[in-house]
Design brief:
This protein has about 190 residues and is an all-beta fold. It has no helices and 16 strands.
């Protein structure tokens, strides 16, 4: 169950009940105190409403726990990790291979990582990729993005794939950082 506990009193906030139908894997505070929620869910039946609203694996909630109706990036598989950049853009990663925000008529290929603009539309300029699921993200102070997971190959837009076992780094523009190669020997689940 995904609920909110009030900080000062420690009691459960009974008015906050977004009620996703599946697992929540990541949360991040976004602009205007909204909450980005990611995981394996496909709908929310918020605050006791009789009908569920489709939200495929990523959603944004208003501070009250209701769905932000303008935000629907629509991932085709699980979203396991989130990072909010200083400019409010949202980096998401997991096992998905396409995203299809409300404004797009066709799904856009995004191999396990993508970036959304503040309004939930796809950032078409950001195009890193991994050949297997990403389970962790770390946004560095300079804007570079470290990813961890079960992959062994990554690439950026227009670049050839490079062997990177379980951890890699992309520069702020989404291009692959070839200078970063720790050479790990097992899956990375947290950064």
């Amino acid at each position: 169950e995904f609920r909110r506990v009030l900080f000062r009193s420690g009691s459960l906030d009974a008015t906050f009940d977004p009620n996703p139908n599946g697992v929540v894997l990541a949360l991040a505070q976004h602009v205007e105190n909204k909450i980005v929620v990611a995981g394996g869910f496909t709908s929310f039946q918020e605050n006791g409403k009789s009908a569920a609203t489709t939200r495929n694996r990523i959603a944004r909630l208003n501070p009250s726990g209701t769905l932000d109706s303008e935000f629907n990036p629509n991932a085709n598989n699980a979203v396991a990790a989130l990072a909010i950049q200083r400019d409010g853009k949202i980096v998401l990663a997991g096992s998905f291979t396409t995203l299809q925000p409300l404004t797009d008529s066709l799904p856009a290929n995004r191999e396990r990582i993508g970036r959304l603009n503040v309004d939930g539309t796809l950032d078409s300029e950001f195009y890193p990729n991994a050949n297997a699921p990403i389970s962790a993200l770390l946004l560095q102070p300079d804007g570079a993005l470290v990813i961890g997971g079960s992959f062994n190959s990554v690439w950026g837009r227009g670049s050839a794939s490079a062997t990177r076992n379980y951890v890699a780094r992309f520069l702020p523009d989404g291009s692959f950082d070839s200078s970063f190669n720790p050479g790990l020997n097992a899956q990375v689940n947290a950064l």
